[in-house]
Amino acid sequence: MASSGAAAIIIGNEVLTAKVVDANGPLLIQRLREVGVALRSLEIVPDEVDAIVDAVARARLKARYVFTSGGIGPTHDDVTVRAVALAMGRQVVRLPVMVELIQQRSRERGLEHVSPETLRLADAPEGAELLAVAGGGFPVLTVEDVFLLPGVPQLFRVQLEAVLSRLSGSPVYLRVLYLGVGESAVAGVLDRVALDMPHVSIGSYPMFDPSLDYQVKVTVESGERDSVEEALARLQEGLPTGSVLRTG
């Protein structure tokens, strides 16, 4: 298993068939960046056990933390728990503390009977732990740094914050150059600086929106502020005169 970073798996036929537009992946990308945890990959797979097993295995090779979204409800297509257990060589067990919580919530709603389908929410890979969620929501199910989050965006958001509060990341420093020339005029300079400073990530993004006042956006980022500033200075020195409209 990799020692750093995160990988994400969005699970659901509804996403792949355009019945639902995924909101959890973009949120996860944004929040991981904000807390300084690098996202190595994001994959969308159907509600199929084999597909999820394969995706989890790939994700654990790429990253320390694995986030899944979807497939942990009480219906027939909620197979994520079983798939994650298979991927990790574990049995599926029923957690007594979750059974008690489900029964308590049912009583609070005036329900005396809990259906067998609802109790599926208490199933987990053997050895799984529960992370408390602020406000008393259902806890996060986790096993060996694999976090099984719900697909419903409102629930996903709350549980994601509970997980991120426990992770430690490194800040990423970012500077931006807005250029008034095309990529072909600056590619050579970008290549030289990127080659000289491989520990700094330099990105070049051409824009084709006539309402913008620039043609290319160049990003410079690293975990080291001084390296970012040095790379920025090298780029500004090497770029064609007058091509830098502004920095950010």
Characterize this entry briefly.
This protein is of the alpha/beta class and 248 residues long. Helix content is 35%, strand content 24%. The strands form three sheets. The chain has a six-stranded mixed β-sheet with strand order 2-1-3-8-7-6, with helices on both faces.
Question: Could you describe the 3D structure shown?
Answer:
The structure is a single chain. By secondary structure, the chain is of the alpha/beta class. It has 2 domains: 6-165, MoaB/Mog-like domain (Molybdenum Cofactor Biosythetic Enzyme, Chain A), CATH 3.40.980; 173-247, Alpha-Beta Plaits (2-Layer Sandwich), CATH 3.30.70.2860. Helix content is 35%, strand content 24%. The protein has helices at 13-16, 24-35, 49-62, 80-87, 96-108, 153-164, 187-196, 225-238; strands at residues 6-11, 39-45, 65-69, 92-94, 123-125, 129-131, 140-143, 146-149, 173-179, 201-206, 216-222, 244-247. The strands form 3 sheets. Strands 2-1-3-8-7-6 form a 6-stranded mixed beta sheet, with helices on both faces. The mean pLDDT is 94. This is MoaB/Mog domain-containing protein. Residues 7-170 form the MoaB/Mog domain.
Please render the helix and strand layout as text.
Layout lengths: L5 E6 L1 H4 L7 H12 L3 E7 L3 H14 L2 E5 L10 H8 L4 E3 L1 H13 L14 E3 L3 E3 L8 E4 L2 E4 L3 H12 L8 E7 L7 H10 L4 E6 L9 E7 L2 H14 L5 E4 L1
Parallel strand pairs: 1-2, 1-3, 3-8
Antiparallel strand pairs: 4-5, 6-7, 7-8, 9-11, 9-12, 10-11
Output the helix-strand order. Answer: EHHEHEHEHEEEEHEHEEHE
| Percent of sequence in beta strands | 15-25%
Overall outline: elongated
Total domain units: 2
